[in-house]
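User: Could you check the structure of this?
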Amino acid sequence: MQTPPAGIDYGLQKGSGNNYETVQIQRSVSRDLSFEFAVEIKGDRQTDSLPLLRGPFVQGKPGERFFYIDIGTYAGQQSLSGWRLKVPLSGITWDMIDTLNSNPATILETQVPGTGENGAPNCATVKPFAGWEIKERSN
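Assistant: Sure, the predicted structure tokens are below.
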């Protein structure tokens, strides 16, 4: 997440509906934040054009998968408004999965803007979404 507004808590949502917890909570200090998690890869590359992503951080129906970044009260911060940022998991291909599996030093990464046009935390669905890239894992 690129330079979100300072003084606000952000975290990765694990679970869905009323049965979730916010993990990896970080308070923004006007620099980039990062969240890391694993997903399960399902599906059959012979019949499924894209892999089916599953796991405790994955939300939505097949073909429309995403994850949430909880913000403010949704991340457990008191006396603040709450928002969620919906980050698409679209565009992840079988070729990307093959590259990740063949090189454990790589990860999938995306960059999303942390601040909306009004100066508040970016929330709702990320638009436009830049997509996912394979990157070397940083230590």
